[in-house]
Amino acid sequence: MQSDTAQGRPEALLGLDRGVWLLIALAAWLYVLGMLAFFFPLPSHSAVALLAGVGMAGGGVLQLLYAIAGPDGSFRPWSLLSAILSLLGAVLIFANPLWGADALMLLIAALLLAGGTLRVMMAWLGRSEACWREIGFSGLVSIVMSGGLYLYAPDVAPTNLAMLLGFSFLSEGMAYSSCAIGRTSGASGVART
Protein backbone atom coordinates (compact mmCIF):
# COMPACT_ATOMS: atom_id res chain seq x y z
CA MET A 1 0.00 0.00 0.00
CA GLN A 2 1.38 3.40 -1.00
CA SER A 3 1.49 6.26 1.43
CA ASP A 4 -0.37 9.50 0.71
CA THR A 5 2.92 11.27 0.06
CA ALA A 6 3.89 8.69 -2.54
CA GLN A 7 0.58 9.23 -4.31
CA GLY A 8 1.40 12.92 -4.51
CA ARG A 9 -1.58 14.25 -2.61
CA PRO A 10 -0.75 17.65 -1.09
CA GLU A 11 -2.96 17.06 1.94
CA ALA A 12 -0.62 14.27 3.01
CA LEU A 13 2.34 16.61 3.36
CA LEU A 14 2.72 17.63 7.00
CA GLY A 15 -0.81 16.38 7.69
CA LEU A 16 -2.43 19.54 6.33
CA ASP A 17 -5.62 19.48 4.30
CA ARG A 18 -6.08 20.98 0.83
CA GLY A 19 -7.78 24.13 2.15
CA VAL A 20 -4.77 25.01 4.29
CA TRP A 21 -2.40 24.47 1.36
CA LEU A 22 -4.53 26.73 -0.83
CA LEU A 23 -4.49 29.43 1.85
CA ILE A 24 -0.70 29.08 2.16
CA ALA A 25 -0.31 29.33 -1.63
CA LEU A 26 -2.56 32.39 -1.71
CA ALA A 27 -0.67 34.09 1.12
CA ALA A 28 2.69 33.31 -0.52
CA TRP A 29 1.45 34.72 -3.85
CA LEU A 30 0.37 37.94 -2.15
CA TYR A 31 3.62 38.22 -0.16
CA VAL A 32 5.74 37.84 -3.31
CA LEU A 33 3.72 40.45 -5.23
CA GLY A 34 3.67 42.82 -2.27
CA MET A 35 7.45 42.60 -1.86
CA LEU A 36 7.98 43.10 -5.60
CA ALA A 37 5.83 46.24 -5.47
CA PHE A 38 7.79 47.59 -2.48
CA PHE A 39 11.35 46.80 -3.44
CA PHE A 40 11.44 47.07 -7.23
CA PRO A 41 10.42 50.51 -8.50
CA LEU A 42 8.06 50.28 -11.42
CA PRO A 43 8.73 52.79 -14.22
CA SER A 44 5.18 53.45 -15.39
CA HIS A 45 1.55 53.28 -14.44
CA SER A 46 1.10 50.54 -17.05
CA ALA A 47 3.71 48.41 -15.25
CA VAL A 48 1.84 48.88 -11.97
CA ALA A 49 -1.42 47.95 -13.69
CA LEU A 50 0.26 44.84 -15.07
CA LEU A 51 1.37 43.90 -11.54
CA ALA A 52 -2.19 44.43 -10.29
CA GLY A 53 -3.58 42.34 -13.14
CA VAL A 54 -1.13 39.50 -12.52
CA GLY A 55 -1.95 39.62 -8.81
CA MET A 56 -5.67 39.54 -9.45
CA ALA A 57 -5.41 36.74 -12.01
CA GLY A 58 -3.30 34.47 -9.79
CA GLY A 59 -5.29 35.33 -6.69
CA GLY A 60 -8.58 34.78 -8.50
CA VAL A 61 -7.53 31.31 -9.65
CA LEU A 62 -6.42 30.36 -6.12
CA GLN A 63 -9.65 31.79 -4.66
CA LEU A 64 -11.70 29.79 -7.15
CA LEU A 65 -9.81 26.60 -6.24
CA TYR A 66 -10.40 27.32 -2.55
CA ALA A 67 -14.11 27.97 -3.13
CA ILE A 68 -14.44 24.69 -5.04
CA ALA A 69 -12.04 22.38 -3.20
CA GLY A 70 -11.68 24.05 0.19
CA PRO A 71 -13.64 23.22 3.31
CA ASP A 72 -17.32 23.91 3.67
CA GLY A 73 -18.02 26.95 5.74
CA SER A 74 -19.82 30.23 6.01
CA PHE A 75 -17.31 31.90 3.67
CA ARG A 76 -17.66 29.63 0.62
CA PRO A 77 -20.16 31.88 -1.28
CA TRP A 78 -18.05 34.94 -0.45
CA SER A 79 -14.93 33.16 -1.69
CA LEU A 80 -16.61 32.40 -4.99
CA LEU A 81 -17.81 36.00 -5.36
CA SER A 82 -14.32 37.25 -4.54
CA ALA A 83 -12.76 34.93 -7.14
CA ILE A 84 -15.15 36.23 -9.79
CA LEU A 85 -14.34 39.86 -8.85
CA SER A 86 -10.58 39.24 -8.99
CA LEU A 87 -10.73 37.43 -12.32
CA LEU A 88 -12.99 40.13 -13.79
CA GLY A 89 -10.55 42.81 -12.60
CA ALA A 90 -7.65 40.97 -14.22
CA VAL A 91 -9.55 40.68 -17.51
CA LEU A 92 -10.37 44.40 -17.46
CA ILE A 93 -6.75 45.34 -16.82
CA PHE A 94 -5.32 42.94 -19.43
CA ALA A 95 -7.94 43.89 -22.03
CA ASN A 96 -7.02 47.58 -21.82
CA PRO A 97 -3.30 47.76 -20.97
CA LEU A 98 -2.75 51.07 -22.72
CA TRP A 99 -5.44 53.07 -20.98
CA GLY A 100 -4.28 56.39 -19.65
CA ALA A 101 -2.63 56.50 -16.25
CA ASP A 102 -5.66 58.10 -14.61
CA ALA A 103 -8.06 55.50 -15.99
CA LEU A 104 -5.83 52.64 -14.82
CA MET A 105 -5.47 54.13 -11.34
CA LEU A 106 -9.22 54.64 -11.02
CA LEU A 107 -9.85 51.06 -12.18
CA ILE A 108 -7.37 49.71 -9.62
CA ALA A 109 -8.97 51.94 -6.95
CA ALA A 110 -12.45 50.66 -7.84
CA LEU A 111 -11.27 47.05 -7.66
CA LEU A 112 -9.54 47.67 -4.30
CA LEU A 113 -12.72 49.31 -2.98
CA ALA A 114 -14.95 46.46 -4.15
CA GLY A 115 -12.61 43.76 -2.82
CA GLY A 116 -12.09 45.58 0.47
CA THR A 117 -15.81 46.09 0.98
CA LEU A 118 -16.42 42.43 0.24
CA ARG A 119 -13.78 41.36 2.80
CA VAL A 120 -15.22 43.68 5.47
CA MET A 121 -18.72 42.28 4.86
CA MET A 122 -17.34 38.73 4.90
CA ALA A 123 -15.55 39.38 8.19
CA TRP A 124 -18.61 40.95 9.79
CA LEU A 125 -20.91 38.10 8.76
CA GLY A 126 -18.36 35.45 9.72
CA ARG A 127 -17.37 36.68 13.16
CA SER A 128 -17.41 33.09 14.40
CA GLU A 129 -14.53 32.19 12.06
CA ALA A 130 -10.94 32.08 13.36
CA CYS A 131 -9.44 34.93 11.34
CA TRP A 132 -12.34 37.31 10.83
CA ARG A 133 -10.43 40.24 12.39
CA GLU A 134 -7.49 39.87 10.03
CA ILE A 135 -9.78 39.60 7.00
CA GLY A 136 -11.68 42.69 8.13
CA PHE A 137 -8.42 44.60 8.68
CA SER A 138 -7.13 43.70 5.21
CA GLY A 139 -10.47 44.86 3.77
CA LEU A 140 -10.17 48.19 5.60
CA VAL A 141 -6.61 48.60 4.29
CA SER A 142 -7.85 48.10 0.72
CA ILE A 143 -10.67 50.60 1.25
CA VAL A 144 -8.24 53.22 2.61
CA MET A 145 -5.83 52.59 -0.29
CA SER A 146 -8.64 53.00 -2.81
CA GLY A 147 -9.69 56.26 -1.14
CA GLY A 148 -6.15 57.57 -1.42
CA LEU A 149 -6.04 56.65 -5.09
CA TYR A 150 -9.39 58.36 -5.77
CA LEU A 151 -8.28 61.53 -4.00
CA TYR A 152 -4.84 61.77 -5.55
CA ALA A 153 -5.31 59.89 -8.86
CA PRO A 154 -3.82 62.45 -11.22
CA ASP A 155 -0.78 63.10 -9.03
CA VAL A 156 0.25 59.62 -7.85
CA ALA A 157 3.68 58.59 -9.14
CA PRO A 158 4.02 54.98 -10.35
CA THR A 159 6.36 54.13 -7.48
CA ASN A 160 3.88 55.42 -4.90
CA LEU A 161 1.04 53.57 -6.61
CA ALA A 162 3.07 50.37 -6.54
CA MET A 163 3.78 50.84 -2.83
CA LEU A 164 0.07 51.32 -2.07
CA LEU A 165 -0.76 48.22 -4.05
CA GLY A 166 2.07 46.33 -2.37
CA PHE A 167 0.82 47.30 1.09
CA SER A 168 -2.65 46.07 0.16
CA PHE A 169 -1.21 42.75 -1.11
CA LEU A 170 0.90 42.31 2.04
CA SER A 171 -1.98 42.99 4.44
CA GLU A 172 -4.16 40.53 2.56
CA GLY A 173 -1.36 37.94 2.57
CA MET A 174 -1.02 38.34 6.35
CA ALA A 175 -4.75 37.77 6.74
CA TYR A 176 -4.64 34.52 4.78
CA SER A 177 -1.53 33.36 6.65
CA SER A 178 -3.51 33.87 9.83
CA CYS A 179 -6.39 31.86 8.37
CA ALA A 180 -4.05 29.00 7.46
CA ILE A 181 -2.56 29.03 10.96
CA GLY A 182 -6.06 29.07 12.45
CA ARG A 183 -7.08 26.09 10.34
CA THR A 184 -4.04 24.07 11.39
CA SER A 185 -4.94 24.58 15.05
CA GLY A 186 -8.43 23.22 14.50
CA ALA A 187 -10.30 26.48 13.93
CA SER A 188 -12.01 27.20 10.65
CA GLY A 189 -10.47 29.51 8.06
CA VAL A 190 -11.67 31.69 5.23
CA ALA A 191 -10.91 32.28 1.59
CA ARG A 192 -9.40 35.39 -0.04
CA THR A 193 -11.62 38.09 -1.43
Oligomer classification: single chain
Could you tell me the number of beta strands?
Answer: 0
Principal-axes shape call: globular
Task: Name the average pLDDT.
Answer: 80
How far the N terminus sits from the C terminus, by CA atoms, comes to: 40 Å
Q: Please give the share of residues in helix.
A: over 70%
Helix tally equals 6
Q: What structural category characterises the helix and strand content?
A: mainly alpha
* Unreliable parts: 1-6, 188-193
Main sheet overview: none
Give the C-alpha Rg: 17 Å
Walk me through the structure.
- The chain has six helices and no strands.
- With 193 residues, the chain is mostly helical.
Task: Give keywords.
single chain; 193 residues; mainly alpha; disordered N terminus; disordered C terminus
Lay out the secondary structure.
Blueprint: H1 18-39, H2 45-69, H3 76-95, H4 101-125, H5 132-152, H6 158-184
Helix pairs in contact: 1-2, 1-6, 2-3, 2-4, 2-6, 3-4, 4-5, 5-6
Gist of the model:
The protein contains six helices and no strands. It has helices at residues 18-39, 45-69, 76-95, 101-125, 132-152, 158-184.
